[in-house]
Amino acid sequence: MSKLQGKLALVTGASSGIGEAIARSLSAEGARVVLAARRGEKLQKLASELPHSEVIELDVRDAQATLTRLAGHAFDIVVPNAGLARGLDPVHKGTPDDWSEMIDTNIKGVLHVLRAVTPGMIERKRGDIVLIGSVAGRQAYPGGNVYCATKAAVRSLYESLRYDLHDTGIRVSTVDPGMVRTPFSDVRFKGDAERAAKVYAGVDYLHAEDIADIVSFIVTRPARVNIGEVVVWSKDQASAMVVARRT
Ligand SMILES: NC(=O)c1ccc[n+]([C@@H]2O[C@H](COP(=O)([O-])OP(=O)(O)OC[C@H]3O[C@@H](n4cnc5c(N)ncnc54)[C@H](OP(=O)(O)O)[C@@H]3O)[C@@H](O)[C@H]2O)c1
């Protein structure tokens, strides 16, 4: 039997990469999935493949829109995955607009989603929240400054949420991936495909589906089991910057 039959899941950042893979995986387990991101066309295309899914066009930086558009849904599973990196410059050469975009999306965006969905979950006394952090939140790397700081904030938020919600029946987890091949680096380097490709050159990097498998595993454990933190490396990656390349 499908393990998530009858469950309603929300995945933000479902228009690409890890979020898309998570949406597919939860749907394959029988969940109805609400697909949220800014690019509606991509979401519609995915929705056409996933039975009983719904599209919500949403910029998670917009607190009011996030509250309004997510209202009225009784989510069982919430994966606030939407996030991005911009640039790899040291702070003294950094771009404040890029910093704002990362902070507003990766920290405040996650908070906006949580503010919208947690009251209902508390009322229903159950639910799963799976944050998508990063190994970048556990160890900084050269030029990672603000992105690393936002993911460290996600990790801290994970710890806080465990206190906020420990007596509510809601399970809280964080999955912290290493290097996953997605459009992430194209976004970081603002469309410089050559520079993005170099990040993954010669590496047996993780696939988005590897992270999605883990999210599905977490939310299909018996109700008493709360897998807390999962750090996922490619076997070629010793740390954020030490990577074996076979070229
Ligand atoms: N790839 C990696 O190596 C890696 C490693 C560790 C952690 N992560 C984390 O994994 C998550 C997903 O990244 P990815 O690798 O899958 O990158 P991706 O393919 O670029 O996907 C990012 C997703 O976030 C959405 N998004 C960005 N800003 C948004 C906003 N303001 N409002 C709503 N949605 C927004 C994008 O959708 P729209 O553009 O359509 O809005 C897209 O669906 C991020 O939190 C990232 O930090 C990635």
What does this structure look like?
- The structure is a single chain.
- The model has no long low-confidence stretch (mean pLDDT about 95).
- This protein has eight helices and seven strands; from the N terminus they run E-H-E-H-E-H-E-H-E-H-E-H-H-H-E.
- It has a single domain, classed as Rossmann fold (3-Layer(aba) Sandwich).
- The protein is about 40% helix and about 15% strand.
- Helix 2 links the parallel strand 2 and strand 3.
- It is of the alpha/beta class.
- The site of NADP nicotinamide-adenine-dinucleotide phosphate has 29 residues, from helix 1, helix 4 and helix 6.
Query: Rg from C-alpha positions?
Result: 17 Å
Q: So, CATH architecture? A: 3-Layer(aba) Sandwich
Helix segment count? 8
CATH superfamily: NAD(P)-binding Rossmann-like Domain
The secondary-structure class comes to alpha/beta
The oligomeric status of these chains comes to single chain
| Overall structural domain count | 1
Query: What is the end-to-end distance?
Result: 44 Å
CATH class, anyone?
Alpha Beta
Run of helices and strands: EHEHEHEHEHEHHHE
What proportion of the residues form beta strands (DSSP E)?
5-15%
Which small molecules are bound? NADP nicotinamide-adenine-dinucleotide phosphate
Count of beta strands: 7
The shape, in one word, is: globular
CATH fold name, please?
Rossmann fold
Q: Helix coverage percent of residues?
A: 40-55%
Major sheet: size, sense and barrel closure? Answer: 7 strands, parallel
Uncertain runs are none
In the sheet with the most strands, the strands line up as 3-2-1-4-5-6-7
Q: Overall pLDDT, averaged?
A: 97
